[in-house]
Amino acid sequence: MTGPVVDGTVVDGTVVTGSVVTGPVVIVGGGIAGVSTAAALRKGGFDGDITLVDAGEFPYDRPPLSKDFLSGAKDIKQIALQPAHWYDDQRVRLVTGISVAALRPAEGTVELVGGRRLPADRVVLATGGAAARPPVPGIDSSRVHVLRTAEDADRLRPALAPGARLLVVGAGLIGAEVASTAVRLGCEVTLVDPVAAPLTAVLGPELAVWLHELHARNRVTTAQSAVESFTDRHGGIEARFTGVPGPQLYDAVVLGVGMVPHTDLAREAGLEVDRGIVVDPSQVTSNPAVLAVGDPARTRQDGVLLPRTEHWEAAQHDGARAAATLLGAAPPEPTAPWFWTDRHGHHVEAVGHLHEATETVLRGSLDDPAFSLFGLRDGFVIAAAAVDDPSAVRAARRMIDRRVPADPARLADPGVSLRALLRG
To answer: What is the distance between the alpha carbons of residues 166 and 123, in angstroms, rounded to a whole number?
Structure first.
């Protein structure tokens, strides 16, 4: 559909619900979720006022922060989500360098720091989150860094000098990417995580182990442990680990242990909050005038609160759903969740949830990237992950979404084309 429809219209067998917005929309937060909401509103035919409020200089993409931006290969303008003229072309008023102080949905306004108020018939919260800082003694040291914003990366970059001793705590996506960037810059990197093979739930044990062992093959020291404390010393910072005798000295520490969603605005406005801003499947909060998208949004479906999803594409899809809700349009068709990561010169993609598979099929060899791993259940592909083989994941995604029957022997044979696999 290209425009709004009347509430109650049947589209492809689905009854479309929702109040069509005609007044001004204010989007709070300029990450991928917020910018995607604005883009989808215009694409869907919304002709009203859109204001995007962001505390930064302009909206930028966050995945490069741990890679090209951190290494200095790209500057802040090169990771902008949209060129400056896009906002003018799309008639999106960009209000930057200031934060929102309060939501006032009963008054139809959003209050900025300093008291200025913006008219808002509907508000979309795309507030993101902050890097988690667990309650470890000494964690407030200036040598302990996080990486969530461009400012965080700017503070960390000088510490990544050749020969610097860097401790990375947490071997998930951010931690692994920072370790990869830092060792490429010449740092002596130690990567610590209490889990033997991080990302097993989404990549499966076989690929998760392969990826974690990739660190050691690229001069990163890995350890399965947890940090007990940090202590500033002359010339560095000491870290103590569980099960390890004596402290270890580093020049800097990076925490990659998750994020905490920004929910203060929602809570102070009286919205339901439960480890995230609670929304229905249409991204609507407990106040119908306010929607939430991206990292802080937590969906309640059929009475059950689902885990938050913190991946780039998921935030993009949230924006599209929120726009459809505001337009009274049919929501986008659901698709299997997908994410990617880059480390040590390898590109990794995954779709679906491999831990839910009852059978896995390896296509290619772990000793010779590129390779892919398919997860099957009841004769269908339900997940896949690949190293340096994005075409396999694209094919798997189509097989998942279309429910194409899968033959394990053909999946495992690199001589069978992906196009042939899509035909079942």
So the answer is: 42
The packing angle between helices 32-43 and 312-327, to 10°, is 40
pLDDT in tens, 103-150: 999 999 999 999 999 999 999 999 999 999 999 999 999 999 999 999
Backbone torsions φ then ψ of 295, nearest 5 degrees: -55, -40
Q: Domain total for the chain?
A: 3
Instruction: State the CATH number of the domain containing residue 227.
Output: 3.50.50.60
Closest-CA residue to 54 (of 243, 288, 294, 277): 294
Q: 21 with 115, same domain?
A: yes
Which residues constitute the domain of residue 288? 10-130+259-327
Question: Comparing C-alpha atoms, which of 320, 290, 348 is closest to residue 124?
Answer: 290
- Residue 336 forms part of a structural domain: no
**151 half-sphere exposure, CB direction, 13 A CA radius:** 6
Residue at 149: amino acid letter: T
Give a yes or no: residue 4 inside a domain: no
Q: pLDDT grade, residue 12 (50/70/90)?
A: very low
Distance between CA 226 and CA 329 in Å, rounded?
48
Q: Which residue has the tokens 């429809």?
A: 5
* Domain identity same for 157 and 245: yes
Helices (H) and strands (E) in the chain, counts: 11, 28
For 173-216, write each residue's pLDDT tens digit: 999 999 999 999 999 999 999 999 999 888 888 899 999 999 99
Q: Encode pLDDT of 218-266 as tens digits.
A: 999 999 999 999 999 999 999 999 999 999 999 999 999 999 999 999 9
pLDDT, tens digit, 9 for 90 and up, residues 365-393: 998 888 999 999 999 999 999 999 999 99
Last residue of a domain, one of 201, 232, 255: 255
How much helix, strand and coil, in percent to the nearest 5, is found in the chain? 25, 30, 40
Residue 3 lies in a domain: no
User: Could you tell me if 167 and 244 are in contact, meaning their C-beta atoms sit under 8 angstroms apart?
Assistant: no
Same domain flag for 29 and 98: yes
Among 203, 222, 255, the domain-final residue is 255
pLDDT > 90: percent of the chain = 86
Q: Is 300 helix (H, G, I), strand (E, B) or coil?
A: strand
Q: Where do we find the tokens 């022997």?
A: 409
> 197 and 156, same structural domain?
yes
Under a CB-based contact definition with an 8 Å cutoff, are residues 239 and 253 in contact? yes
**Would residue 155 count as lying in a domain?**
yes
Same domain, 119 and 143: no
Query: For residue 135, what are the β-bridge partners?
Result: none
**Distance (Å, rounded) from C-alpha 199 to C-alpha 355?**
10
